[in-house]
# Entry
Amino acid sequence: MDELSEKLAERTLQLCRVRSPTGDEAALCDQLEGWARERWPGAATRRIGNSLVIGRNSVDRPTVALVAHLDTVPFFAGDGEPRREGSRLIGKGASDMKGGLAVALALAETLPTTASPLLVLYEREEGPYTENGLEPLFAAGVIPQVDLAICLEPTANALQLGCVGSLHATIRFRGQAAHSARPWEGRNAVHAAGTLLSRLAALAPREVERDGLLFREVTSVTRASGGQARNVVPDLFELNLNHRFAPGKSITEAQQDVRQLVGEGVEIEFTDLSPSGPVCLGNAVVQRLRSLAGRVEPKQAWTDVARFATHGIDAVNFGPGDPAQAHQVGEWADVLALGVAYDILWKLFTDSVKPAPAGRG
# Structure
């Protein structure tokens, strides 16, 4: 292990030791705000809620934002204390995305002022779309029109472009209660869902190509509830349906796809609508990052790449975490991957410096 990776590993563990499940990011935000104000007392540091924008950016270069959410998913029963086992850093958020956050903080400390990134560190990414902590920052005007936003999502140091959109819908089947010994006296709401459930079980992913990248549109039941007692025919059965759709498809089009899939005579209530994110291969900074990262993949998940796009800002996903470890019990990150991510981003920032205009130092 090189010295840089070791330092990044220790910092990642320190960040993991500050618990920050969604809605409980205050302690971590306090710590990072104190770090920023002490290190750069003259820099612009803005806090809204438990989100921060920290900037030392120069007008002589493309402005690139490093974007990291501070929250993690809730703690599970099998999660232990943050620790290191060989080359693995085990702790809630190690991959998603406190390893990426550690890399961003180290870059902010070590890059020259003329190449330093804008840091956007925010709360509530893992919750509903409407509660996301980025939106208040945009509303307050503290996020400028940067040339590129790099969301430090776990990508195993591949450049992942775009993102699938996501919508949730509550599907309700209604019946009539009856004694389970005489079911003919009622209508079983669970049985009424059988046709849809069979259709979903047989539904293959739909492949959609965007700019040479293959996205998969998928639809899954993620929750089911119904019934009042063991001996009562249920009169209500509800499913949560999660539909993921490719870049280029609008939320309205995705809703229509769900309606067609579910069919007539069934109640549908859409509960969480997150747009897809575009593939921005034409961006000059993205092209440079692509050459440095080597691997380019589609983002088969939703990220805030989509939210930046709604505000007219190109964004990509790139980070040291392992996407397969996100939201797992015993989540871990690889030590060496932290150093690789730092090295790639260091080269991106230092190579992106523009010549100073005449008359300036």
Summary: The radius of gyration is 23 Å. The longest strand covers residues 213-226. DSSP finds ten helices and 18 strands in the chain.
